[in-house]
Amino acid sequence: MTRSAEVSRKTKETEIAVSVQVDGQGKSDISTGVGFFDHMLDQLSRHSLIDMTIKARGDLHIDDHHTVEDTGIAIGQALSKALGERRGIMRYASIDLAMDETLTRAAIDVSGRPFLVWNVAFSSPKIGSFDTELVREFFQALAQNAGITLHVTNHYGANNHHIAETCFKAVARALRAALEPDPRQPDAVPSTKGSLKG
User: Fold this and answer.
1) Residue 24, class by beta-carbon neighbours within 10 Å (0-12 exposed, 13-18 middle, 19+ buried)?
2) Which site among 29, 72, 96, 164 is 20 to 30 Å from 106 CA-CA?
């Protein structure tokens, strides 16, 4: 079965269309109007090997918040839809990801129960014109709507761009591992409850 989905979301603040192919090659076509965010989403796609097409138009004349948060919502909904009953997945994964002077850990449980633990601090409120607090907002929206438990911890780092980028890359790599098919139980839901729907 193809693990793919499309989601469209339209509000007074944003209009977003997302498609995902979980068993992809990490190809992306992304345009949100927020350059740094596009760069981070490209990393998310490339390192998770989830093909993503993301088109977003938002009220950027106010700020980037609604666009970033609502994009996280739409990607999360698309992933949840694509995974269905979550049969045959590895479910759990974690990784420590290094980038130059920075080290960040992401741990994931594709549990159906959304939760975010965020232990990441930035030394500046901005990366260029991008608000660093929006990194957390994105992952909160993603975890909530994908139905995943996500822990992200930045162990250390000096460059805020690197800290943000390792968060996206680490989550991507953990997603890739957690969503991989489990060859020992390809048709089983990996839970003693028999369900990963929350």
Assistant:
1) middle
2) 29
Instruction: Name the region of 128 (left: φ>0; alpha: ψ -120 to 50; beta: rest).
Output: left
Relative orientation angle of helices 65-83 and 133-146, to the nearest 10 degrees: 30
**Amino acid identity at 109:** D
- What is the token pair recorded at 97? 């990801």
What average pLDDT values come out for the chain (198 residues) when binned by 10 residues?
93 97 98 98 98 97 96 98 90 97 97 95 97 98 97 98 98 97 78 61
Token pair 């839809």 in the structure block, residue: 81
pTM to 2 decimal places: 0.95
Give the residue carrying structure tokens 């045959």. 88
Tokens 């929006």: give the residue.
134
